[in-house]
Automatic annotation (TrEMBL):
The lineage of its organism: Bacteria, Bacillati, Actinomycetota, Actinomycetes, Kitasatosporales. InterPro entries: Amino_oxidase, FAD/NAD-bd_sf. PANTHER family: AMINE OXIDASE. This is Oxidoreductase. Transmembrane segments: none annotated.
Length: 457
């Protein structure tokens, strides 16, 4: 029997970072691949709006230089990352304090030295002699990080996390993150003053209902790397992946209406036969195409962008509100982190609101930013307010960090809803899905370029 004339070996539905990175792995293995995207351009939720020379992210995902998949994903070799200043700025009771800015250990021996040095002075008012470690000042017990003892213990815990094997973290008992931290003996002031606002920025979950295993992975990434963003906006990552794929691989403006193991049906081009289908859409779209797939809860995210010609004096720092004294969870002068995001002479301030935003969000955010930055925001210009109701899939326990990507032979699914709800998770799920497809296809596949899509009859 003759095989049908496949237009592609694998059809990927969705041109977000998961679908594009899977396409890179498949095409690198010689598999003819077609990526179909309903939107006018690739990128999915990692999109950037351009207004008068400003580059405004819609969700404002934070990356980490320690994400393994940023190094392992084909096509991302040229990705430029702009790091924030080390650690974060905590705002509490009208004051700002830098936290988490200890030296990132380059080896297990270096981390062990840091842990021992930090733990060796439980009664000291300051810790000295640790490479890259700033002296801990005498602080009030009610300060965001508590006493010097609390700070030393926190630094030791983060240093241990930086070198902890992922398998060990995943073997820990799973609880909601807030409960797990409390049961580990972490002081309440350290949880509420530092870990809660930090994890809110990393996971978009200010109530810490996220699985403790996912929270541990997020803290490990923070402790072993630097928070960063793609140069030029979030869209730079998917744009780079799309641009470096073989010509004719990505097709935008193509809406898939149904999927099977050997074909997809589109509104514009009819049925497209193939050997396998990979769903790389968001969780809700995937469930619409394959009823029965679980749709998780989501964390809504609102990003408010302002501009001013008098930038606040916080440098390239990510600032968190330890007091939770307003709607803003975290904020940064993004033009000082990445100058390409604003025209010369203008500053871009991007602020993230988690949960349901207030009705008069711009006024509430301005008032909060005025307290956080210690300056008037009355003359700041609002550039955009981006609200995404289903921005980040929730990861409440029990959360399967390695949800199956192979549904059955010929049908696969990937995305941040199959792993961790981060860019790292999306890329890693694509890695797993591509490996499963290649294993099921057996041979490397055809080396020929996919044929152009035909119009529906």
């Amino acid at each position: 029997m003759l095989e049908p004339a496949y237009q592609a070996d694998v059809v990927i539905v969705g041109a977000g970072v998961a679908g594009l990175s899977a396409a890179h792995r498949l095409t690198s293995a010689g598999v003819r691949t077609a990526v179909l995207e309903a939107a006018p351009c690739p990128g999915g939720r990692m999109s950037t709006e351009k207004i008068d020379g400003f580059r405004l992210d819609r969700i404002g995902q934070l990356l980490s230089t320690s994400y393994p998949e940023l190094r392992l994903t084909p096509g991302l070799d040229a990705l430029a990352l702009r790091p924030f200043a080390p650690g974060v700025l905590l705002h509490s009771d009208g004051r700002r304090q830098r936290a988490g800015a200890f030296a990132k250990p380059r080896s297990a021996r270096g981390a062990l030295h840091a842990v021992r040095a930090l733990a060796s002075a439980p009664r000291a008012a300051s810790v000295r002699g640790i490479p890259g470690q700033t002296t801990l000042p005498r602080v009030r017990a009610s300060a965001p990080l508590g006493t010097a003892v609390d700070q030393a213990r926190l630094g030791a815990a983060l240093a241990r996390l930086a070198i902890a094997p992922v398998e060990r973290l995943l073997a820990r008992p799973e609880l909601p993150a807030a409960q797990a931290l409390a049961e580990r003996g972490v002081p309440a002031r350290t949880i509420d003053g530092f870990l809660r606002p930090l994890l809110a920025a990393l996971l978009c979950d200010p109530e810490l209902t996220t699985s403790s295993r996912c929270a541990d992975l997020a803290l490990r990434a923070f402790a072993s790397g630097r928070l960063c963003v793609p140069e030029g906006g979030a869209e730079a990552l998917p744009e780079l992946l799309a641009r470096t794929l073989p010509p004719g691989t990505v097709h935008t403006g193509v809406r898939v209406t149904s999927v099977a193991t050997t074909s997809v049906t589109t509104a514009e081009h009819g049925e497209i036969p193939c050997r396998a289908v990979l769903l790389a859409t968001d969780a809700r779209t995937a469930a619409e195409l394959l009823p029965g797939l679980r749709v998780p809860d989501f964390h809504p995210v609102t990003v408010v962008h302002h501009t001013t010609d008098e930038p606040p004096t916080t440098g390239a720092s990510l600032m968190l509100d330890a007091d939770r004294g307003g709607p803003v969870a975290h904020t940064a002068v993004m033009s000082q982190v990445d100058p390409s995001r604003a025209p010369a002479g203008r500053a871009l301030v991007s602020s993230t609101v988690l949960g349901t935003p207030p009705s008069d969000i711009d006024t509430a955010v301005r008032m909060h930013l005025s307290r956080l930055y210690g300056t008037s925001t009355a003359r700041w210009e609002t550039l955009a307010v981006h609200h995404t109701p289903e921005a980040v899939p929730a990861m409440r326990p029990p959360h399967d960090l390695r949800r199956p990507v192979r549904l059955l032979a010929g049908l696969y699914v990937c995305g941040d809803h199959r792993d961790t709800s981060t860019t790292q998770g999306a890329l890693h799920s694509a890695h797993r899905a591509a490996a499963a497809i290649l294993a099921d296809l057996g041979a490397a596949g055809s080396l020929h370029r996919a044929e152009p899509l035909r119009a529906a009859a």
